[in-house]
Amino acid sequence: MFFNRRKKYNGKVSALLPAFGFDLEEAGVMKTLNVLDIAWQQKYNEYEGALYVSYLVVSGYLKRDKNKALEILDQTKFVQQDWLSKGLVDQALVQRFTEKANEWLGIDNDTENKGFEFTPNMPDIMSAQPVVMQEYDETILIQVENVPSLFKKFGGEGEHPLFYLQVAALISKTTNKPIAIFTLETGMTDANFFGLFEGTGKHLNLGKQDRELSRQDFLELAKEKLGLSVTTP
After folding, report:
1. Distance CA 169, CA 172 (A)
2. What is the Cα–Cα distance from 97 to 76, expressed in whole angstroms?
3. For the segment 39-64, what is each residue's pLDDT rounded down to a tens digit?
4. What domain of life does the UniProt record list for this protein's source (predicted)?
5. From edge to edge, which strands make up the β-sheet containing 139-148?
């Protein structure tokens, strides 16, 4: 019975790994099995076990192919936010995994926690001229269109799958950093999705775009999602 449970566990974890952009052969079958031994002993569920494997694959790639490591890390963070929103993985465990990845990249976790956490999959809002800029008492709302992710600025090479058709960023006048970013993104699938990056850098998938949006339509929806008045300030 024990071996049957372990076999099912390994199978469920292995089936989740392609979501991160790699498979068992790429990760190394024997190394993966060793990692799964640890995940099983730590009582990680299959989703947490898959995240654990993915982060260790990132660690391995950082030693020989930083570009690939960033690709997998980016996709891992994208997937884990979806799983967090669905209650499939433990928040504290994900935080530990994320902090360890920051250590590998030389990012100070204490510094990151004091402000907006930038990640490779976020839109590069400084790469385009704003099409809309509106000022509020303590914030500025900036809207940009057709911008890439921050992937290359994190050291990645080549093209990144995520691309942002529309972005509305709410910027603090005090820190000059984003408070939240609302996006219309494409690239992971054939569909376009709405997304929201919160103050900690956490990414929320808000569902598929189900209607045509003009620039003004997107701006009004962004204000609603960012907690602003839909009227011009």
Report:
1. 10
2. 11
3. 888 899 999 999 998 998 888 888 77
4. Bacteria
5. 132-135, 139-148, 163-172, 178-186, 193-197, 203-208
